[in-house]
Specification:
510 residues, 6-stranded antiparallel beta sheet, alpha+beta, globular
Length: 510
């Protein structure tokens, strides 16, 4: 019997389904919504064509199933018959057919690796890929040798542990100097201890079943100049441990981050507050046995069970205000995570999120994203282009830049909305512009009232060329943009037409 992991799947209405490659959704036929698919998977109909059997699939067998009405796809070692799903796929049949009869893992990761295909396609599971014959010990396939030589990653970290009568200290030696508290994520559940360290595009995991019980709270310390991480655990009983524990899945592994699955922990809703007529500030509290700090410019996935299926959506955490955390405290554990979320009454996910009561739980993933904070170092001009809730990744970028980048001369935000009522944190933004002379904000409305005296319309070359004026001809500049997919795609094209280089532009997509 195969154990298929259950994670999550996003609603097809998610604006962030489209990846930076510009893939777009296709109109689905009547009766082919996500809810219709969930109903079909629960109908008892045989969706694999194998009458409930699970088989081992060879590469030769997989290749045979490459037609629209007989389409098998392999993702991370599991093979699915996706023919029944063709008409329900928001990206269209052609997108699925690109991986027909083959391993679609890389293609899947490029488009939406956060989608929980396991939960969504579990009734379409054909079986597992057959193991390839093992090579003689010490030999690598030629392709793997070539890949390894072509792209040498950072050297592999290691770990050790020490104890006193009351404490156990796990030490991770990363062999890197740019490690900080954001780099390590620790979760302790029952006797399972999991510490993931993110080093560039790689993930190092210490994952053990502890040999003795520990207390809920622990501390995480980072010695940045040598890249050493110390995780100090408190023993429940002052006894000597003979060993740290037994290794669990992927213990002591060091692999590309894109090859790791998303890991979730349950966080408690402690408050929600109206920000605009349809946007709320949600505050979630991490478990006491978790250390997690979301790096600037990165996002997480929120997961909820909806009609028997786990649904996820990506969101970028914000500070609770532009002022109270203007100089964010460096704490061993930041226990609260804030999200500005627009509630779509006809949406699939946000109405369920809005129905949650204080004290209810939401699952929160590890951070993801390709924004690198070193892009802000030595920056002189920072331009932010945001539409609607595309403002959310800008909050921490804005905070960090004004607080930590001494070379900064100017930060400008152009914030596009439909009406004045839609502008998130308008008064805070105006106060910040008054308080810090380096910061300017311009609001642009597409459907203003007759009283509006500010700028109006949509993103355009004319607006951008006036807005994006460097403080000097040679100033180091970064332009960040985020919003609905059409906004981002049009903005990127306009910026390239205005001769900004690829290194001067960062587009937030999930």
């Amino acid at each position: 019997m195969l154990n298929v992991p259950s994670q999550s799947f996003p609603g097809p209405s998610s604006q962030q389904r489209v990846a930076s490659g510009g893939r777009s959704k296709v109109p689905l036929k009547q009766g082919r919504s996500l809810m219709d698919w969930i109903r079909l998977t629960k109908s008892g109909k045989d969706l694999t064509g194998l009458k409930g059997r699970l088989i081992e699939v060879t590469e030769e067998e997989l290749k045979k199933h490459n037609k629209k009405d007989d389409c098998w796809i392999c993702i991370r070692g599991f093979v699915y018959n996706v023919s029944p799903y063709m008409e329900y796929h928001p990206g269209g049949e052609d997108e699925l057919m690109r991986a027909a009869g083959s391993d679609g893992t890389d293609l899947f990761d490029q488009v939406h690796r956060w989608v929980n295909y396991e939960s969504m396609l579990k009734e379409c599971l054909v079986g597992r890929m057959a193991m390839k014959p093992a090579l003689p010990k010490g030999m690598l396939p030629q392709s793997q040798v070539t890949d390894t030589l072509a792209k040498e990653g950072p050297s592999s970290p290691s770990y050790d542990w020490f104890q006193t009568d009351s404490l156990v200290t796990i030490v991770i030696y990363t062999k890197q100097k740019d490690i900080n508290l954001d780099s390590v994520i620790v979760d302790h559940r029952d006797d399972s201890f999991r510490a993931e360290t993110v080093i560039k595009d790689y993930s190092y995991l210490v994952h053990v079943a502890l040999s003795h019980e520990i207390q809920e709270d622990f501390s995480v310390l980072v010695v940045e100049n040598v890249g050493k991480i110390e995780i100090v655990l408190k023993k429940k009983e002052n006894t000597s441990w003979k060993r740290l524990g037994h290794p669990l899945e992927n213990h002591n592994s060091f692999i590309p981050k894109k090859d790791t699955g998303l890991f979730y922990r349950k966080c408690q809703l402690v408050s929600k507050e109206d920000m605009t007529h349809d946007t709320k500030l949600f505050c979630l509290m991490l478990p006491p046995s978790t250390h997690l700090q979301v790096p600037v410019g990165q996002h997480v996935y929120l997961k909820l069970p909806i009609t028997g299926t786990e649904i996820v959506k990506p969101y970028t955490p914000v500070s609770d205000s532009l002022f109270s955390e203007f100089k964010e405290p460096v704490l061993p554990n930041n226990i609260y995570i804030y999200f500005l979320i627009k509630i779509y009454p006809a949406g699939f996910f946000t109405p369920e999120l809005d129905q949650l009561q204080i004290g209810d739980y939401v699952s929160v993933s590890n951070p993801e994203g390709n924004f690198i904070i070193s892009q802000l170092q030595e920056l002189e001009d920072l331009f932010l282009l945001a539409a609607g809730t595309g403002f959310t990744p800008m909050v921490k970028v804005l905070n960090y830049a004004l607080t930590n980048i001494p070379s900064l001369r100017k930060v400008k935000l152009m914030f596009f909305n439909k009406t004045e009522d839609d502008i998130i944190w308008r008064s805070q933004l105006e106060k910040l512009a008054f308080k810090d002379k380096r910061f300017e904000v311009e609001f642009v409305l597409s459907a203003p009232t007759s009283e509006w005296s500010g700028k109006q319309g949509y993103i355009s070359p004319a607006l951008l060329s006036e807005f994006l004026r460097r403080s000097s001809d040679t100033s180091k500049v970064l332009i960040c943009l985020c919003g609905p997919t059409p906004f981002t795609e049009q903005g990127m094209k306009m910026l390239h037409d205005l001769n900004f280089s690829k290194d001067e532009i960062h587009s937030f997509t999930a």
